[in-house]
Amino acid sequence: MDIGVLLPTGTAQWGPADDARELIAFGRYAERLGLSSLFVNDSLISPRVEALTMLAALAPVTETVTLGTAALMPFLRRPIQAAQALASIDLLSGGRLTVAVGAGFPGRFGRPLYTLSELPWERRFARLDETVALWRALWGGAGTFHGEILRFDDIPPTTRPSRAGGPPIWLGGATPTALARTGRLYDGWLPYPPDPADYASGLRDVHRAAADAGRATEDIAPALFVSVRIDDDIESGRRALDDYARATYGMPLEELEKIQAVVTGSADQVLEHLGRYVAAGARHIVARLGARDLHSQRNQLERIADLIPAVQGAADHASTSESS
């Protein structure tokens, strides 16, 4: 059972006196507290420290934590250049990179980014899958790539990552087609369903698609992206998360929680809710901390760290129940 944190790289999560360079100390502190991963997200919608830049800065100053994206949008970058950057981060970190990818969302959080990237919105999922296939080919030493959308001849030698085959690549999303593609093509699944029952049914579909493709289900990491706020009680936690949702997404919490997993309340209440996702099969939690300045983020980080033994115990219990 792994529990990691999404670093607050967006300026909406910084207070007036916060300094972006504090994120390095934040990541190192998370590692000392026992968090197993540091993730960053990717967007052009709001100001933030760019995702791969952040991971490159963390690679040489951390030792054991996984460094990940949640989620990287490959269409924002030239595909061969992105392969080089990702391989470089994997090298600098000694093979600790995990790359969760997505194709963007309908509406203002996705489609405008394609316009800025001068790419068509149509066939975005095919483009995503081909980009990942290209990366893997380059990391394996390929000098050409011929897909339906991406075609390259005479590719010069590219940077090889630390691990043979390159870092694991996870897919975000929970539509039926995303579940099928995860099972066929990807190394992990990173959704954020509001209902743990939907996580369980989605994971079953991923495993079914993997089996149909002749893949071992245990080779696909079952992860979860979830917004977390530990507070005195649910009411106070919801007020803080509502402030966070409005600042980050421009929408109230009651709208955000319809589309994303959100957990709040006392430590015991948060533990109980996370335990439902663990029972549904989640084994790598990426927690986004519901706070709006780095001091408050650090406080939430410490509270999450205090829950690690109990969440791991819940995972052990769930695994024992599955095998019995």
Please outline the helices and strands:
Blueprint: E1 2-6, H1 22-33, E2 37-40, H2 51-58, E3 66-72, H3 79-92, E4 97-101, H4 111-117, H5 124-139, E5 145-146, E6 151-152, E7 169-171, H6 176-185, E8 188-189, H7 196-212, E9 221-230, H8 234-249, H9 253-256, E10 262-265, H10 267-279, E11 284-289, H11 294-323
Parallel strand pairs: 1-2, 1-11, 2-3, 3-4, 4-7, 7-8, 8-9, 9-10, 9-11
Antiparallel strand pairs: 5-6
Helix pairs in contact: 1-11, 3-5, 6-7, 10-11
Give a structural overview:
The protein is globular. The longest helix is centred in the C-terminal third of the chain and has 30 residues, at 294-323. The strands form 2 sheets. The chain has an 8-stranded parallel barrel, surrounded by 7 helices. α3 packs across α5. The chain contains 11 helices and 11 strands. It is of the alpha/beta class and 324 residues long.
